[in-house]
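To the structural biology subgroup,

Please find below the input and predicted structure for Rhomboid family intramembrane serine protease, which we are adding to the shared reference set this quarter. The sequence is reproduced verbatim from the submission form. If anyone notices a discrepancy with their own records, reply to this email rather than editing the shared folder directly, so we keep one authoritative version.
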Amino acid sequence: MAQPYGQPPQPAGLPRCYRHGDRETGIRCTRCERPICPSCMISAAVGYQCPDCVHGAQAAARATRPRTLAGGTVTADSRLVTKILLGINLAVFVAVLVGGDRLVEDLGMLGHAIDPATFTWVGVADGQWYRMLTAAFLHQQIWHIAFNMMALWFLGPPLEAALGRVRFVALYLISALAGSALFYVVAPQNQLSLGASGAIFGLFGATAVLARRMRYDMRPILGLLLVNLLITFVWSGIAWEAHIGGLVAGALVTLGLVHAPRERRTLVQVGTCVLVLAVIAVACVLRTTELLNA
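Predicted structure (tokenized):
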């Protein structure tokens, strides 16, 4: 067949898929117009698109999706995690009422004690590390759980909305662990602690840091925190160690969450949480070594 002068020869047959050079196709991507074979065709509102265009559109959508102050995903229900935590605490409280003190004895925060029945060590020093977290969901007195859950209901949603769900869960659990850790390091033998107070004080510390970051009036939160600290040290029977440990950890974690630079936000945030967890772990290991060698 004659070819016009100066024009390159035209290949015979249909064009070939840009991803699979051995496959001829008559379909083109509606966005970039590159030829695509049936294996690469992805249905779109109009026609078909190639995998590169679809992935590019998804990445652009993720980049423009609204984010919280700390980089979390904005959700329709900013109280979901708070409601779940409330539900867990209330469910465990009902279980304690039904099952009696045995559940508290088995899951409460007990650093080191001697079981009077077997004369053997029990508690975290004996390897029962789970107590550091399970104790944060245990309550016996109605006033105790009522105060903690009321504080959780008021402090939780604003923090959940500002941090995002995953970061809020990390804040809550790390604060609870830090409260248990300080109790373990300081509290004497045969002393039992329970309650969400360590986590709640972590939320107090987080709220103070967030208010400072947003340049809100600090006086209300500082006044409320001062009142709770006075109650902590004046009211007998309160494990002040859990309150202070949770408060410090909550403030430190939130500092990392809300002040992380945008370019390395996730790295800094994860690093902050890991660093606080590492301090908790080292403190507990050192305390365990001290007790076992005593």
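Summary notes: The chain has ten helices and six strands. The chain has two domains: 15-49, 80-293.

Regards,
Lab coordination
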